[in-house]
Write a structure and sequence with these properties.
alpha+beta; Thrombin, subunit H; Pdz3 Domain; seven-stranded mixed sheet; 23% helix
Length: 487
């Protein structure tokens, strides 16, 4: 190559060499970032694993006598008169079954609390469904230490349980603030899936405020794609600072295993329940006494409401804190304690967590005008309504009902507050084959008046064992009885 050509190509070589340097530097920086992230996960694992426990429960399933062969002939009074109740040699005698031990497992973790802690006790947070009905509970730490545990308190409605073990030297985990958790944020789940001790999985927060899943009475789940499997229940969901932000509780799965969707109880809710269980062994919940529903564009138009956020009051219980505060059917609640109200489940949870006897501020819209109300929160007792949704499903029967609002009552020629209206009927369901249609008003269930979806659901629940329900329904001006049965 001539000298002239060499001088021509030299700048090109230098140019492309300079281009390659930034590219290589970018690759090195990306790999370094990945290493940093990996180290962060490893750091969380080292920090939290000593506080996570493997929970094994043992319960005794009592045997129930059964009759392997049954015949009306052997139960006949004439037969028993001659041969007595126990006729030897026939297999229809009721045979007692032996007791059998059932084993279960889950996860939990030792946690720090601000009050109620005894100097010689460590408390473990887990799910109620992990330890419910257990006769014996054993927890195992990562270092192999095993301890017998007892239940300090449990709350099935939120699926929270507190265990206690001897000794205060066990390492504990700090509780974070689940309210500050953001969708897309990295989280780490630690637990014992399928009995595989102290397994760590990593993912992100894929959603917040999940409710209406039918898992717990009070739902406000964190949704995550961190792998959660059977045995993870009760274990911690943590941020990258090693703080607990949730209690791993349930998975969505058609196969029984991980399918990318897991649910955790927010730690702020769990801490409130835990403090009460440790202090008094039981949970008290705030009581308002209203039936509510999410506002929809159709409802907003019917009530001439410009506001598109908030919850609509469909019923106010007599002599309830809500009635005493002046809350009325048709009011739109847009703020509770100064914070915006978006949907039924979140509002219901916030009322439940408000201490009974305290005062709460409500911002409502009535007749197009904003008003401020102050309500003294009551103490929820069995059978009362905190602030319940006005829509319920009767899945076995195949239809959905809603509390009658004034607007719906006018539409279906019914009386407000008397009965519930069918809003949806599944094709080929028991309800469909019995002639129920959207717009049918149900006045009674098993000859008991139903004036709200709460009344309706309770009445249907009592019929689940019989798998048969008697309805008094109204279509326009005519009433009729309908019997629905399912198997």
């Amino acid at each position: 190559m001539s000298q002239r050509k060499a001088w021509f190509f030299l700048p090109l070589v230098i140019f492309f060499s300079l281009l390659a340097v930034p590219s290589q530097a970018a690759d090195d920086a990306a790999i370094a970032n990945l290493r940093q992230t990996s180290k962060a996960f490893a750091s969380v694992a080292k920090q939290v694993s000593p506080s996570v426990v493997f929970i094994q429960v043992e319960s005794v399933q009592r045997g129930v006598p059964f009759t392997p062969f049954q015949s009306p002939f052997f139960d006949d009074d004439l037969f028993k008169r001659f041969f007595g109740d126990r006729f030897p040699g026939f297999p229809n005698q009721r045979q007692p079954q032996p007791e059998r031990r059932v084993m279960g497992q889950g996860s939990g973790f030792v946690f720090k609390i601000d009050k109620g802690m005894l100097s010689d006790t460590s408390y473990i947070l887990t799910n109620n469904h992990v330890v419910e009905g257990a006769d014996k509970i054993r927890v195992t730490f990562k270092d192999g230490g095993e301890f017998e545990a007892k239940v300090t308190g449990a709350d099935p409605k939120s699926d929270i349980a507190i265990l206690e073990i001897d000794g205060s030297e066990h390492p504990s985990l700090p509780l974070g603030d689940s309210a500050n958790l953001e969708v897309g944020e990295w989280v780490v789940a630690v637990g014992n899936p399928f009995g595989l001790s102290h397994t760590l999985t990593v993912g992100v927060v894929s959603a917040k405020g999940r409710s209406g899943l039918g898992i717990n009475d009070y739902e406000d789940f964190i949704q995550t794609d961190a792998a959660i499997n059977p045995g993870n229940s009760g274990g911690p969901l943590l941020n990258l600072d090693g703080e607990v932000v949730g209690i791993n509780t349930a998975i969505f799965s058609r196969s029984g295993g991980y399918m990318g969707v897991g649910f955790a109880i927010p730690v702020n809710l769990a801490k409130n329940i835990a403090d009460q269980l440790i202090d008094s062994g039981e949970v008290t919940r705030g009581y308002l006494g209203i039936v509510i529903q999410n506002i929809t564009p159709e409802l907003a138009e019917s009530f001439d409401i410009e506001e598109k956020k908030g919850i609509l009051v469909a019923q106010v219980s007599e002599d309830s804190p809500a009635e005493k505060a002046g809350l009325k059917v048709g009011d739109l609640i847009v703020r509770y304690q100064g914070e915006k109200v978006f949907e039924v489940a979140g509002f219901r949870n916030r009322v439940a967590l408000t201490p009974p006897g305290s005062w709460a501020n409500l911002t409502i819209i009535r007749d197009g005008k904003r008003r401020e109300l102050s309500v003294k929160i009551g103490n929820l007792e069995d059978g009362q309504v905190i602030a319940s949704s006005s829509t319920e499903k009767a899945d076995e029967l195949g239809f959905t009902v809603q509390t009658l609002t004034p607007d719906l009552a006018r539409q279906f020629n019914a009386k407000p507050g008397r009965g519930v209206v069918v809003t949806e009927v599944q094709a080929n369901s028991v309800a469909s084959m019995s002639g129920l249609r959207p717009g049918t008003v149900i006045l009674q269930v098993n000859q008991m008046d139903v004036n709200s979806t709460v009344d309706f659901q309770r009445a249907v629940d009592k019929s689940r064992s019989d798998k048969r329900v008697l309805l008094l329904v109204s279509d326009g001006n005519m009433s009729r009885y309908v019997v629905l049965s399912w198997r």
